[in-house]
Each structure stands twice: as C-alpha cells, then as structure tokens.
Specification:
By secondary structure, this protein is α/β, with parallel strands linked by helices. The chain contains eight helices and nine strands. It starts with 5 loop residues before the first strand and ends with a strand.
C-alpha cells in the first residue's frame, strides 16, 4: 500500500522536546509501514547549513533548506519529519504554502522549565548576556497562531504528546490507523524479524491457529515468536514450552 507523503514540522524553543517527540513519532510511523526521514535542526546545521550563523537571514536560509528537502521527500511519498526551532512565523508559513501537505506541531514549554532542564547551562549564559542571538532570550520566537497540533511538554508526558500527534495525523488522513488482530502481529513479525515485540493482547493467540505465541526468555517478556509446529495454547496461569524459530533457542509461552 502506497502512502501519501507529508511534512510533520516540529517547532519550539531549544530543549522543548522536539527531537524526542520526532523520534518517537518516527518509530510509530515506521511500524505502520510508512517511509520516514527525520531532519534534525542541529544535525542539518552541521552538514547542509554548515557555515551559516544565527542572524535572521541565516536562520531563514537554514529553515528554507530544511523545508526544501522536506518538499522533495514529501512529493516522493515519504513522511518527512523536521525538528527545528524555526523561530519566525513568516518562514514557517512560506513552507506551509510551498510544501502543501504540511502539519505544524508547536512544542510549547515555558522558559523557567527550559532553564531547569538545561544541563549545559546555555539558557543561564544567554540570560546573563554571555551568548548572543539566543532564541527565546535575546532573539525572538514567534509562536504559531494556528498549529495543527499543540503539545505542552511541561505538562504532558512523551506518550501523551505523541498520542495527540498521531491522533491528528490519523484525522487528517496522512496515517492509517493501527493494525488490529493477526494483521498487526504478522506485520510486526515481518518487520522486526521475529524479535522483541511488545503490547499484543493474549486474545490474539487464538488467531492463526496458535502459530504465534508471546514468550518469556532471559528475563524479557513481550517477545512474539513463530513456532515450528502447532502447539496447544497454555491454560490460564500455566506456561508451555516449545521449540521456536529465532536466535535464542527454547522459549516459554506466558500469559
């Protein structure tokens, strides 16, 4: 199944959690079968935008370069995820018009929380005047007026914020809903080559004639494995051993 490309643009102050959320969403999108690329603002500056400074003109150039790559990826059916401060509203609005399928995620976080999180002490240095052109302190950050998604990482867990983002992507039709039943299990098994997969309910064991069992091995639970031959399902509260495909040898099915 071919999926329509789109750009998911995370904007917010430094340290607000853009990259963390981008990587979490990336993992889910890959699980659902989408082609995904992540463009992190810091990494792009070291490569595509090497040599640019932090003047408004240079910042705009940097964001437009990231946006151009996102546009190319999007039109080729890729979910392009950008995580960049992108402080100026005008440039973000330009990218929205230029790319078309553009989803803006405002990662909000108050300055006092960012200062408390900042292990490198950059915010304190900027407040003390030791760092110039620091967004949110000595340089402006223009908040999005109408983003598709607003998350507040000072109040929400990563899981809560990701859930809001995924719900919006599903609502917009860019992302298919999660697979259910044996289709989900089969997809995960194919994708992860019968490795550690969590979250599947025990009820799914009854699908596909018991060929999929959740296992416990070497202290790890939540492992799904395809067994060599049919096995009867373990009764409530009991375990069942069986030889299984995979690098770990014998597994114990657990309920």
């Amino acid at each position: 199944m071919e999926h329509k490309g789109f750009t998911l643009w995370f904007t917010g102050l430094s340290g607000s959690g853009k990259t963390t959320l981008a990587r979490a969403v990336e993992s889910i999108l890959r699980e659902r079968g989408l082609k995904v690329e992540v463009l992190d603002g810091d990494i792009v500056r070291q490569n595509l935008s090497k040599g640019l400074g932090f003047s408004k003109e240079d910042r705009d150039t940097n964001i437009k370069r990231i946006g151009f790559v996102c546009k190319l990826l999007t039109r080729n059916g890729v979910a392009a995820i950008a995580a960049a401060i992108s402080p100026y509203r005008e440039v973000r609005d330009f990218l929205r018009q230029d790319i078309g399928t553009f989803v803006e995620v405002y990662v909000k976080c108050p300055l006092e929380t960012l200062v408390a999180r900042d292990v490198k002490g950059l915010y304190k240095k900027a407040i003390a005047g030791e760092i110039a052109n620091f967004t949110g302190v000595s340089d402006p950050y223009e908040e999005p007026l109408n983003p598709e998604v607003l998350v507040d990482t000072s109040l929400e867990t990563v899981e809560e914020s990701v859930a809001k983002i995924m719900a919006r992507l599903e609502e917009l039709g860019y992302v298919p809903p999660p697979l259910q039943g044996w289709k989900r299990v089969y997809t995960l098994l194919r994708k992860h080559a019968q490795s550690r997969i969590a979250w599947q309910p025990w009820a799914m064991l009854r699908l596909r004639a018991g060929r999929l069992i959740p296992c416990h091995h070497a202290g790890r639970t939540g492992v799904w494995i395809r067994i060599r031959r049919r096995h009867s399902l373990p009764k409530q509260g009991k375990s069942h051993e069986g030889r299984a495909f995979g690098p770990f040898g014998r597994y114990t099915a657990v309920q």
